[in-house]
Write a structure and sequence with these properties.
Chain lengths: 332, 332
Amino acid sequence: MASGDEQSAEERLIARYFRPLATHPGAFGLADDAAILTPPPGCDLVLTTDGVIAGVHFFPDDPPDTIGRKALRMNLSDLAAKGAKPLGFLMSAALPAGIDERWLAGFVAGLGADAERYQCPLLGGDTDRTPGPLSISIAAFGAVPQGKMVRRSTAKAGDRVVVTGTIGDAALGVRLRRDDGLADRLRLPESMRNHLRQRYLLPQPRNVLAEALVQHASAAMDVSDGLAGDLAKLCRASAIAAEIDVARVPLSDAARAALAADPALIETVLTGGDDYEILLAISSERFAPFRAAAGHAGVPVSEIGRLFAGEGARFMRGGKELTFVRPSFSHF
Amino acid sequence: MASGDEQSAEERLIARYFRPLATHPGAFGLADDAAILTPPPGCDLVLTTDGVIAGVHFFPDDPPDTIGRKALRMNLSDLAAKGAKPLGFLMSAALPAGIDERWLAGFVAGLGADAERYQCPLLGGDTDRTPGPLSISIAAFGAVPQGKMVRRSTAKAGDRVVVTGTIGDAALGVRLRRDDGLADRLRLPESMRNHLRQRYLLPQPRNVLAEALVQHASAAMDVSDGLAGDLAKLCRASAIAAEIDVARVPLSDAARAALAADPALIETVLTGGDDYEILLAISSERFAPFRAAAGHAGVPVSEIGRLFAGEGARFMRGGKELTFVRPSFSHF
């Protein structure tokens, strides 16, 4: 019996695990119905939402600290591609009964570390028990100078096609995770296996490039559903055609070794997704200052092709067009 | 085989079912990574998130058009209680394989009707297949004059405790839905059964009161986890005590009839939740103009008790304090 003045188990859980992440004054310590956010003067608010479901976007036995971080970083990557500076996030967590306090402690430790690292505090949330798999849905908010969000639809004929970092690592990491014998068959040394798996577990969103993208890019998006499918989306949005030189797509040593052992993995590399790199279109005059800014920020960038009038995104290798069985990751 | 320039099934699904709801110019027709929202000058942005999971927040065979509406209205109710005018929402939909296009068409028809009715357009989203139950998570955004969000923590000793509408209908509606024989045992006529079920299926958020709350309320929250538990939260947030006269808690004819047949249902009425009415604290001088504004908007309001220095929320009936087995709905 209780007279209604005791905290519920849900309130205790929120107070213990999630409140410490709600460092933003507008979060009111998660003790109100809603949060407040005031974009900096002269800025638009940029909004994005993305989530992860156990067994779909991560393996249920992945380390708990990586799961919240991955969910947050997927959203941070969208903000980065749009040129937006992170301001904060809302989180909906659906937790199955089997989740224990140790798991939760690990989960919030990772999430909290990233919230601090990317200066993107928790603003509010919603916590439910689910009979289904664990799932985390995040809505993240960023600020961009008014009217300056970097769009998908503003790429121009003559622009160069550029990507950050390396492509295909995470998709290869998933293949290794699903197929225990694959790493041996590909003769990948331990360090390369770890590199690919780590790239899958923990994306490295390119938020340090946000300002340079606003200044220089014609158009941009993050690579989450595979380079081939995402470039096709950018081309459709901008009503333009792309031709990519597959030999110039930047690869890690591990991806290069995997491809040397099994050239058919090129489809996984170019279409598998989970890269969380930035794909951008940029004019020739702007490329040098953008590359300099990226270099200053420690992010490698590679020109991989060109845009021209027309439609479709073609991946060329040795004068021939590559075709894919499944050009883009799709849930449906 | 495809060269990467065709839309994926996921893109087609989004274009067909969700794009028509994305009427806000900042949604970019759901064809970008993110949306843009610019709060009106002099306003703070109010953010909230809430979601529904099949089998937890609704019955899997509830009509599809009510499911998206309920998810949106739960969030609209939070905005209403904070005095915020709706601006738009983000939605994450996790759909099991069994969901067909007819279900989806019904779902978006209901959601679209409410987005228009409450002037709260879809800004962006995320759609996934899930091996688990259908779940919809919404993050909704509203505007409130800067610094004027109605808080939970600002109730004062001497304030009246007021609720809108009637309390307990939805919780009784769930009981009827779970127990086929209950309506007969309670001897409820068909019209009363329908009233209670409908109140569960489709909340009526009090967004028409947002401005009056900003002008007059000391503190407010929406009643979603049951009046008893939510009042206890408001008292804790404001470091204050409440005494409620149970006889003054507003009840529908149907709830009154159910209680007459089984007085023990008072616990369901006061703690069951899903009311989506507004609970507010208001000074005596402000109550008359607030009641007039609410009357003008067609919303009944009832004074049910008082706040005073101290702690705890007491529900008094015939000079004795009611106690509850489970004072608040909690998922944990």
